[in-house]
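Box 3.1 — From sequence to structure: NAD-dependent protein deacetylase
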Amino acid sequence: MHGNSNFYELKQLVEQSERIVFFGGAGTSTESGIPDFRSAEGLFNNRENRKLAPEEMLSRDFFIAHPEDFYLFYTSKMIYTEAKPNKAHLALAELERDGKLKAVITQNIDGLHQLAGSRNVLELHGSVHRNYCMDCGESYPLSAVVEARGAVPRCSICNGIIKPDVVLYQESLDMEVLERAAMHISKADMLIVAGTSLTVQPAAGLVRLYKGDRLVLINKSATPMDRLAKILVQDSIGKVLDAIIR
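Predicted structure (token representation):
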């Protein structure tokens, strides 16, 4: 099934499945107006007017060495407080309420799945909504970062630097979250993968743990796993998932 052909087959598969797992990347949130930061327009000028790539500015070394520049980039390019869940997020929350969807595994840090009502969300790369003081460990909401207006947010208790609980380049993923994601995928009878190119780890490795024959790939461009998919849809994720629950 490609493109705009009917979603009948996909709907049937969902009806026959009882342990669906959704694995999503940046493409799941683009319909909420959150761009994939990798497609962020080229290089950024820091305050010394040096041009830097997003991957460099989102590294742990850069955060430690240049927290001011990090926060300028992070607050302008990674935080979208106005973003609302789209049809994809809402459809997944409904599938979970119906008892069919067992877990949402996401590479996104925007918290939109939870906002839509999903309960079992495994965030591989953390969340902008959780922040903590690097010195005393005090927790802070997103508002603490936003209200600093691009400056470095400081702990009200000890004045330490507040760091977002997001996985930066050079940092390792939370092994407990990773293990839970692996467990859910290996037990799934249907795996829906959407909005991710499947070219980075651990995404590719996790998807390979799926043992079933109901792999659904929804992505605008081709992925290395297209040939393994039972159903391949190159279309809007929101449109496709919304059609499943209608």
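Summary of the box: DSSP finds eleven helices and eleven strands in the chain.
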